[in-house]
Specification:
Uridine Diphospho-n-acetylenolpyruvylglucosamine Reductase, domain 3, Enolase-like, domain 1, 11 helices, globular, FAD, oxidoreductase, FAD-bd_PCMH_sub1, Mopterin_DH_FAD-bd, flavoprotein
């Protein structure tokens, strides 16, 4: 680990000021991705801006048909939130099978979404539910936020503050985990909004989260597991490694989509 300065602001304004003043400064919340990178000397920030002391970045609130989750809300809090369990049980379920108990007690939703790891779970919920990412500067639609492997629409110095999820009519999530690492091989989040729009988001299989348009059309016509059973995800561009070929991950997308729809009911 390289040397760095350490700051712990108590307000969003102070955190943004620190991040904007130094292009090599990095925010840290739960540290589940950044700390391992620092230990392996894969990242060399000049300073770390610890967000854990900013109370306004924490918590879950419901406002009508919207669930607002603060960026520093931990996975275990998403899992156990009465508001989320009632309004979006699929999101609570996702949090409950994310990583292990240690990760769930340290990691945060905002950190996961901002990092946009291809194998992360939350990006598929954000995209699948058509959520809005709220920063200190603006509001970004999910379809515009994720831009590829570890890449988002966040600008230098911009801070993710919260994520606002529309409450769906129904939603479900299923994933296949690598039996050794437990990272996602392929996951699918399906949702039917109260306005009738169907969204299907895939994580883990490719270099970034993406929507599966053919499955969306099929489920719009017939919301049932069988509606996606014969839809084949193209393997071109999907991840391929020692753990699974692109063709295997493409097959998993269909299998997980069926399970997700069944989970949603």
């Amino acid at each position: 680990m390289y040397d760095f300065a350490y700051h712990k602001p108590t307000s969003i304004a102070d955190a943004v000021k620190l991040l904007s003043a130094d292009e090599d400064a990095r925010p840290i919340s739960g540290g589940q991705s950044l700390l391992p990178a620092l230990k392996h000397r894969l990242n060399r920030p000049s300073s770390l801006v610890d967000l854990s002391g900013i109370a306004e970045l924490k918590g879950v609130k419901r406002d009508g048909d919207t669930i607002r989750v603060g960026a520093l809300t931990k996975h275990i809090e998403v899992q156990n939130s009465p508001e989320i369990k009632s309004a979006i049980p699929a999101l609570s379920h996702m949090a409950s099978i994310l990583g292990d108990i240690q990760v769930r007690n340290r990691g945060t939703m905002g950190g996961s979404v901002a990092n946009n790891d291809p194998a992360a779970d939350y990006p598929s919920a954000v995209l699948g539910l058509g959520a809005t990412v709220v920063t200190d500067k603006r509001r970004i639609a999910a379809d515009d936020f994720f831009q590829g492997m570890f890449t988002t629409a966040l600008e230098p110095g911009e801070l993710l503050v919260a994520i606002e999820f529309p409450v769906p009519e129904k939603a479900g999530y299923a994933k296949m985990r690598n039996p050794a690492s437990r990272y996602v091989m392929a996951g699918v989040f399906v949702a039917k909004t109260k306005g009738g729009e169907v969204r299907v988001a895939v994580n883990g299989a490719g270099p970034g989260v993406f929507r599966q348009a053919e499955m969306e059309r099929a489920l719009t016509a017939n919301w049932a597991p069988d509606a996606v059973a014969n839809i084949k995800q193209p393997s071109e561009g999907l991840n391929s490694d020692i753990h699974g070929s692109a063709e295997y991950r493409a097959h998993l997308v269909t299998v997980m989509a069926k399970r997700a729809v069944a989970e949603a009911g």
